[in-house]
Write a structure and sequence with these properties.
The complex is a heterodimer of chains A (about 120) and B (about 110).
Chain A: E1 3-5, E2 10-14, E3 19-21, E4 24-26, E5 32-38, E6 44-50, E7 56-58, E8 64-68, E9 73-78, E10 87-94, E11 106-107, E12 111-116
Parallel strand pairs in A: 2-12
Antiparallel strand pairs in A: 1-4, 3-9, 5-6, 5-10, 7-8, 8-9, 10-11, 10-12
Chain B: E1 4-7, E2 10-13, E3 19-25, E4 31-37, E5 44-50, E6 53-56, E7 64-67, E8 73-78, E9 87-94, E10 104-105, E11 109-113
Parallel strand pairs in B: 2-11
Antiparallel strand pairs in B: 1-3, 3-8, 4-5, 4-9, 5-6, 7-8, 9-10, 9-11
The chains are: A mainly beta (about 120), B mainly beta (about 110).
């Protein structure tokens, strides 16, 4: 069965430092890939998505992600973190094939980002 | 401008007392979803509507029902809430159902069961 793994449950970085959040997926083919951010008590906001083409994807709020087929990874990066980036980050896949009829997103467990002043 | 609106933001209900959460959208999207997100967990899909066609996930308890009276509105009904149903409930919409379709989420309703 397809799955999404975010190995880091909690990450703390200093403001201004670079950030990388890891995401690995298990799937027979390249799925559609998403990163969402959730601030405390809020819904999910889409940061970026990858469907095909250029493997480096730019998103909102200065985030980018790189798809690496050989590693089944879709890691999220930001060169300089701001205090307002503190939130929970979810990697998700939109499956292919018959499962795509559900439109169901499969989420990783999430990574909580804390930003130190 | 809010595009997916959930009401209320916070709901407290008594154990066993039916409760309804509501979601509305201004995007005119065909698909509306309900996800359940328990504390420190990933969102989990309960069911979705594609237009008027209701699609239940296999492991969604019978205690959870949904209604979509028109394109804009969708309701989540919990017939007899238990303590284990306390969670954030997220409504989302998308234009189509394919895996490459972006989902737009509301801000969620935090349900507390006392």
């Amino acid at each position: 069965a397809q799955s999404v793994t975010q190995p880091d449950i909690h990450i703390t970085v200093s403001e201004g430092a670079s950030l990388e959040l890891r995401c690995n997926y298990s799937y027979g083919a390249t799925p559609y890939l998403f990163w969402y951010v959730q601030s405390p008590g809020q819904g999910l906001q889409l940061l970026l998505k990858y469907f095909s083409g250029d493997t480096l994807v730019q998103g909102i709020k200065g985030f980018e992600a790189e798809f690496k087929r050989s590693q089944s990874s879709f890691n999220l990066r930001k060169p300089s973190v701001h205090w307002s980036d503190a939130a929970e980050y979810f990697c998700a896949v939109g499956p292919l094939g018959s499962s795509s009829n559900t439109g169901k997103l499969i989420f990783g467990q999430g990574t909580t980002l804390q930003v130190k002043p | 401008d809010a595009m997916v609106i959930q009401n209320p933001r916070y709901q407290v209900t008594q154990f066993g007392k039916p409760v309804t959460l509501s979601c509305s959208q201004t995007l005119n999207h065909n698909v509306m979803y309900w996800y359940q997100q328990k504390s420190s967990q990933a969102p989990k899909l309960l069911f979705h509507y594609y237009d008027k066609d209701f699609n239940n996930e296999a492991d969604t308890p019978d205690n959870f029902q949904s209604r979509r009276p028109n394109t804009s509105f969708c309701f989540l009904d919990i017939r007899s809430p238990g303590l284990g149903d306390a969670a954030m409930y997220l409504c989302a919409t998308s234009r189509q159902r394919g895996g490459n379709t972006e989902a737009f989420f509301g801000q969620g309703t935090r349900l507390t069961v006392v």
